[in-house]
Amino acid sequence: MAEWDVAVIGGGFGGYVAAIRAAQLGLRAVVFEKERLGGLCLNWGCIPSKALLRNADVVNAVREGKKWGLAGAEGVRFDYGAAVDRSREVVDQLVGGVEGLLRDNGVEVVAAEARLGGPRTVVARGQEHRAKNIVIATGAKTRVLPGIEPDGERVLTSREALLRREAPARAVIIGAGPVGVEFAHLWASYGGEVTLVELMETLLPLEDPEVGRLLKRSFEGRGVRCLVGTRVTGIEHTQAGVVVRTETGGERGTVEGEVVLLAVGFAGHTAGLGLESAGVSTTRGFIDIDGRMATNVPGIYAVGDVTGKLMLAHVASHQGVLAAEAIAGLERPEPDYVQMPRATFCQPQVGSIGYTEAGARQAGFAVKTGRFPLTALGKAVAAGHTEGFVKVVVDEVTGQVLGIHMVGHDINDLLGEATMVMLLEATSAEVGFAVHAHPTLPEALKEAALAADGEAIHMARRRPTPREGAVPA
Questions:
Q1: What is the pTM of this model?
Q2: What domains are there in the chain, each with its CATH number?
Q3: Considering the chain, what percentage of its residues have pLDDT values greater than 70?
């Protein structure tokens, strides 16, 4: 029977990072992965979708060729299949990199499905592996709506959508979260007729409402139909594709498409893991953890999407590091999931960190905000992408920045600075005082911080209307 210091079930971003960090700390680690290393994000999510979205950026630039002085761009043909091939090549390259990292760090990889055999046992291929500590990092699976099951042809999950070699001529996307809006942007860029159906009142409903409203206007300006506040009541298969039945404010309607993409979120991948036999506690299908990533069973930890905390690859990686360090006995601050950066890579892109304006008020803060439009930013004007804004949410009492919300072309390049602002608990005065290179996108963050204090330089300031009868000073 093999024995390990740390056994990791699942080789995605949370799992392989936990194993590497454990090895760095002198622990003998093994990873069990039934498919390819890298998990959902690397193989079927973040990475291949971003490769395709980069192709969409090129396609849109060529479509606007006349604007950039490109003669003859009108007759260019776009090969979507070639874009898919490139995305899979990118995946293969990065998976190979992860394999090399694990090998270089002395982490053993067992290519097999695994489950808990008890509090200190992992079972794979009928063989028991003893481990002093176990990290569960099995990720998540696509959530489906009652009565609407994916078939891989007409009703798709993101996994099948990433493998299609042709962009659909007409598509209905159910759910306008990050996955939904990214595919809407991608397929519309290749000429598809796209309809987004969202139950909540804005696109990207977990983001600041101002951001969602601007994104909706932007999409509609490009011909993407956005049905917000709309419930899907069922679907019907037809010879030509699929008819989606909807209900908006009591009014029923239908939307036809060649395909339907389910983008309504994810559920924890816990089935068949043997959690019950080990006594691991769950809530609504996600594994319960504390701030050290520990479950209720001593020696068993969980990281990543299977915990349901915040389903982002960089969050899973951070949790993986924290789990390994907790096992090694290191003391680290518990993660603050409000302060994790969030990014959506449609165009215009959406990036945020910290509290929304409404969330800050609900948390008890007295709030002021600053907002700077990209129409006033030199770099945005020079680059020809002026749609969007940067908004900061500030504690009116202390001046501390509580949240940063951004929408604009390639605006997620600002998330690195935004993360440091939040980590260092900077004030709007400090962000506004910092000198930013010109012309760059980060100047928008500086100006938004200045705007929160009424000091923005490159934005017209509306003068208050004098009161009737007032005497000028």
A1: 0.94
A2: 2-142+267-337 (3.50.50.60), 155-264 (3.50.50.60), 348-452 (3.30.390.30)
A3: 97
